[in-house]
Amino acid sequence: MEAAKTAPVAPAAESDILREVVIPTLVVMGGLFVQMQWSAWLGLAVIAGGFWYGYAQGWGADPRLNLSPKLKAEEGKRWVQVTATEVGRIKKKIEVIDNLGSGCLWGLFNLGISLLVFVVGMGTVGVLSDGLGNSFAEEMLGTAFLDLVFLGIWYFWICAPNTWKPHLVEFKLPVFEALLAGFPALGLGKWSREYQLELAKTDKGEVPTDLKLMIKPPDAPKELLGVQAQVAINRGGPYLYFVVITRPSLPIFQPAAGDRDVVERKTDKDVNILVIRQFANKHGGYQTSASEIKRLLDLAVRSVEGTLKNAPASASATAKG
Q: Which CATH class is domain 167-320?
C-alpha cells in the first residue's frame, strides 16, 4: 500500500462579504442610477460589471467544484495529504451547493424569481412614472425589460451555477467528524489527525472525489505510518474500519478480537498492514454504529500500543529523537 504523498492542493477561496456582496451590490445600484439618469445601455454595462465582479470573487474563485467533471481513467487519480482547514472549505462549498438546489427544481425556482422580479419591476415603474409622461414611462418599461433579459441570460446561460459535488466526500466526512469528536473522551486528544484526499483528473483540472483519515499517537516513530480510517458504503449506510500501517522493520501487534470483529493481516511489499473491521454476514454487521466504531477504535489503539511496546530498539530511539 502506497502512502499518500504530501502535495499542494489549490486552496479554496475564503468567503469575503465585502468583495462578494457589498461591492457588487454598490456597483449594480450605480448601474441602475446611470440607467435612470443617462443611458439604459451604459447602465446595463455597469450592472453586468457588478455581477461579473461578484461572481469572480465568490463562486467563480474556486473552480474545483464549479463544473460537471468528466473523470478520466483510474490512473488519473492520486491521494494527497490535506489539512482539516482545506477539507472544511470543501465542506462549506458542498453546503453552498445544497442551498442552491439542483436540476429542474433549481431551474423552476430561477424562472419563478425572474417572473416575480419582472412583475414587481413593472409595477414599480408604473407607480414611479405615473404623471411623469408617457415617454418616460415607456423608457423605464424598456429599461426594465432590458435588465430582465440580461438577468435571464446571466442566470440561465453565462453563469448558471453547476451543482456537481463529490458525493463520497459528502458521505464520509460526517462519519470522520463524529469519530474525531469522541477522541478527547477516549484519551486520544493528543493524537494527530490528517485527512487524505483523492484527486481525480478532469478536462478542467483536478477535483476531490474521495476521503480518508489518518491518525497517529504523539511521538510515534517514523516506522509507524499511522492508523488509517476508511469508510465503505454498505446498503446505504457507513461501514467504518481501521488499517494499522507500519514499515517492514516494525512488526504490528495483533490484539485479540471478539466474535463481532475481524482482525487480519495483509501483505504488501512496502508496508505491514493490519485491518480491523466488523464481522458481517447475511444476518447483519454491514453498517457500523457509534458504539461499534468505538469498539473498533479501541482495538486499533491497543494494536498501536502493543506495537510500540514491542518495537525494536531502533524504532524506540527514533521516537525519542
A: alpha beta
Q: Which three cell numbers stand for residue 115?
A: 417572473
Give the CA dihedral 205, 208, 209, 211, nearest 10 degrees.
150
* 262 DSSP β-pair partners: 277
| 3-class SS of residue 242 | strand
- The length of the chain is 321
pLDDT digits (tens, 9 = 90+) for 135-155: 555 566 667 666 766 766 666
Query: 98-102, 133-137, 200-204, 303-307: lowest mean pLDDT where?
Result: 133-137
CB 291 within 8 A of CB 228: no
- Per DSSP, the three-state class of 70 is coil
Q: Which DSSP string do the residues of 207-235 spell out, in sequence order?
A: EEEEEEEEEE-TT--TTEEEEEEEEEEET
Q: Quick one: the chain helix, strand, coil %, rounded to 5?
A: 50, 20, 30
For the chain, give every domain's residue range: 9-63+102-158, 167-320
d(CA 66, CA 68): 7
How many CA atoms lie less than 13 Å away from 216 in the CB half-sphere? Answer: 16
State the Cα–Cα distance between residues 305 and 138, nearest whole angstrom.
Answer: 81
